[in-house]
Design goal:
The structure holds 3 protein chains of 3 kinds.
Chain A (H helix, E strand, L loop, with lengths): L1 E6 L17 E6 L4 E6 L9 H11 L4 E3 L5 H9 L3 E3 L6 H9 L21
Helix pairs in contact in A: 1-2
Chain B lengths: L1 E5 L7 H11 L3 E5 L7 H5 L2 E15 L9 H5 L5 E4 L2 E4 L9 H5 L5 E16 L2 E8 L6 H9 L7 E5 L6 H7 L4 E6 L3 H17 L3 E6 L7 H8 L4 E5 L3 H8 L4 H4 L2 H19 L4
Parallel strand pairs in B: 1-8, 1-9, 2-7, 2-8, 9-10, 10-11
Antiparallel strand pairs in B: 3-6, 4-5, 6-7
Helix pairs in contact in B: 1-11, 5-6
Chain C lengths: L1 E6 L7 H11 L3 E5 L8 H4 L2 E16 L9 H5 L21 H5 L5 E16 L2 E8 L8 H17 L3 E5 L6 H7 L4 E6 L3 H16 L4 E6 L5 H13 L3 E6 L3 H8 L4 H4 L3 H16 L1
Parallel strand pairs in C: 1-6, 1-7, 2-5, 2-6, 7-8, 8-9
Antiparallel strand pairs in C: 3-4, 4-5
Helix pairs in contact in C: 1-11, 5-6
The chains are: A alpha/beta, B alpha/beta, C alpha/beta.
Amino acid sequence: MKIAISSSGMTLESDVDPRFGRCPYYIIYETENDSFEPVENKSGQAAGGAGIQAAQMISSMKVESVISGNIGPNAFRVLSAASVKIYSGATGSIKNAVEKFKKGEYKQTGGPDVVSHFGMGRG
Amino acid sequence: MVISVASGKGGTGKTTVAVNLALSLDNVQLLDCDVEEPNSHIFIKPVFKSKSKVFIPIPVVDKTKCDGCGRCQEVCIYNAVAIAGKKVLIFPELCHGCGSCTYFCPHDAIKEENEEIGVVEAGEKSSIQFIHGKLNIGKMMAPPVIRAVKKHINKKKTVIIDAPPGTSCPVITAIKGTDFVILVTEPTPFGLNDLMLAVEVVRKLKIPFGVIVNRSDLGNKKTDDYCAREHISILMKIPFSKKIAGIYSRGDSIVEAMPEYREKFRELFEKIKQNKDESSAK
Amino acid sequence: MKQIVIISGKGGTGKTVIAGAFAALARDKVMADCDVDAADLHLLLGSTIKKTYVFKSGFTAFTHRDRCEGCGVCRTACRFEAVRENFSIDPISCEGCAFCSFICPRQAIEMKANISGKWFISETRFGPLVHARLGIAEENSGKLVALVRQKAEEIAAEKNCRWIIIDGSPGIGCPVIASITGTDCAVIVIEPTLSGLHDARRVIDVAGHFNVPVRVIINKYDLNCDMTEKIEHWFKDKNIKILGKVGFSKAVVRSVVEGKTIIEYSENKVTRTLRSIWRLIEEEL
């Protein structure tokens, strides 16, 4: 199955990015054959609705689950509507996150972690 | 005549000027359009008589008619409409109320409903009719609330508008269409820096304007020089005084505590009438 | 690395002067001026612009007259009174919604990327400064503020700085939110006036919403000592710590006129108070 992880970089050694809507990249990982591709997040620069735009892009890629540091309320709403499973609170490297996910160590998130605009002020 | 009081920088004395000018004249309306942080009611202390909510039209989708075609999402520039799992999701806080999605839906599945973003309160104090607007916390759009306040303009009265500080779009909404703009500044590098930005705005809007220098003895001569060079008329100078600062801090008005200022504000009004007729905007 | 933002709710309380003082007192820092509508901090720090960038946000409609047949549908559609009688667009009123562009039967209206401001990286007496200038009549969505913050963080990481000192936006909207999120402390500068207290309450709500710890400085406190006392009680009730009270001093205005921070200008009760406030901040963070 395909999972999407918010990432600060383009490789498995990159860190999980704490912001779903404004992270620079996503790593789209196929757990069946352990292949992956980095996808640039063009929503990061949106004035408003970055989370919304990002969530739509991810769900259009037929991703089954999303792993991130934090998910805001708008992205949460879009992903839930598309029946994408959401796992938040992830830290460390992408590689690490994938392993933890495969082992079932992440719990599905019931609601948004942060208020809207969380990603706005940070670098 | 409608006079707006603005400034590039906050804290220069805009509200002080608007309030005291209103208290010095007859047959006046004072409109506080600084809807994020309205303050002039603190000084006027009006008796409020009415309160009305301000709404913006937000699209609502009729799910029975919607087929998830996505046309609404395509025409929304603001990301306020999302499609996920064949469902349409509306995000009201991003919506600018432009009406595009409603118009372009091929199935007539969207209609607009009102969402509250603020309030307008109206009241009176002696012969002043007072109106102010308050943007609800968490709401981002000041202009619709400002427009709602300005709907109360009665051209038979002398209308004074206390505008928000700065030069961004809420300020434009407040001063657009007024007959004269008073720019309040202080004679410091901060004041001058921001005055120059404000002058650019008022010139673009082609409204006659003049400057009031507040705390005029605390600073340097550069503001005077700038105004002279640019042929901008300095309508009034208010020197710094601990007495005035104290009066302001208590929420009292200068003209009530220091009646000599009433005459000065009346003179200011006469100058403005003259200025407007000569149309000093270049 | 710690980030500290100085905000005020209301303009003119002395936010920028205090931010300037902290810039002079802190070691190894980067400054960020997030008051993009009326940026002033650079005037105190002796700055030289090293790099200028253009900031684009949203769109503005533009009518190609050669394609326009004058049907007027655009004017009917536009809710912002931005389409003139001759069907050209008033860029000041245009909100970039593109309704006119979508509806025009001749595709005569183009949406052009809007240059809504500029941002700069400058060198100052105290280190690098990131600042910006929002264009006239532009929507202050907070995006430009977020960009200033981001660039300041990049520079701080590069240079291994201990502090980012942020001169925040006034008000309570998105620019303030973008100034506050992710900082380690928000210092609210308040004057002893009724309006000051009124506005500070609104901005404290915003800071609380974003889980940023709040501290207070009462500026020009001796202009109304009764009010100052009232404010002190109010904050004590809310369990919000007051870092200190700074007195009114004409020397502050003179320092601004000379383009210096008050710390450099003279040694007096104001600078002594500010120094002890900074020491408190350093200890806490």
